[in-house]
């Protein structure tokens, strides 16, 4: 039985894995519960990350998470509060959770924002495209890592 994140983990040709496509994150990028290095090779922009965090057409993270002092209406409480996430998790741990939280918790309701395989109910126009770009992931990492309570 293939685990949900196996194709993401392997990141090798489809013929070898049966996954049907190449993973966006190569297997050597993972280390325990983190992706230690930037997906782009550059640090993200925390202000752009904040914009993605609240944007309805971006991550829309506020739908499920709350950040104290963030001036946006209707912050959610489905996921954990993130006001001090930068004090609790490393940037690499934050990155992995944005890329594909199901690698850590297969039962999570958090979407995989940087995965394109093994997904359900994807609109035809969006098949093969991650929800966020690698740059947006890095921007979110920069924003969230700065939230230290």
Summarize the structure.
It contains six helices and no strands. The protein has helices spanning 6-10, 14-17, 46-54, 85-88, 91-100, 134-145.
Number of strands: 0
In angstroms, what separates the terminal alpha carbons?
A: 41 Å
Q: What is the fold named in CATH at topology level?
A: Cytochrome Bc1 Complex, Chain D, domain 2
* Distinct helical segment count: 6
- Radius of gyration, in Å, reads 15 Å
Helix content: 25-40%
The 3D shape can be described as globular
Strand content bin: under 5%
Mean pLDDT: 85
Give an overview of the whole structure.
The structure is a single chain. The protein has 149 residues and is mainly alpha-helical. It has a single domain, classed as Cytochrome c-like domain (Cytochrome Bc1 Complex, Chain D, domain 2), CATH 1.10.760.10. The protein is globular, with a radius of gyration of 15 Å. It starts with 5 loop residues before the first helix and ends with a helix. The N terminus is likely disordered.
């Amino acid at each position: 039985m293939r685990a949900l994140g196996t194709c993401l983990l392997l990141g090798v040709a489809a013929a070898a894995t049966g996954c049907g496509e190449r993973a966006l994150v190569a297997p050597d990028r993972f280390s325990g519960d983190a992706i230690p290095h930037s997906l782009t090779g550059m640090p993200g922009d925390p202000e752009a990350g904040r914009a993605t965090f609240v944007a309805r057409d971006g991550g829309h993270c506020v739908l499920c998470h709350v950040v104290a002092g963030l001036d946006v209406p209707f912050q959610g409480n489905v996921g954990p509060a993130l006001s001090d996430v930068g004090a609790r998790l490393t940037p690499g741990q934050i990155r992995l959770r944005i890329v594909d939280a199901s690698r850590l918790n297969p039962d999570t309701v958090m979407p995989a924002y940087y995965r394109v395989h093994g997904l359900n109910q994807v609109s035809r126009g969006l098949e093969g495209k991650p929800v966020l770009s690698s740059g947006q992931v890095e921007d979110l990492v920069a924003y969230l890592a700065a939230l230290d309570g």
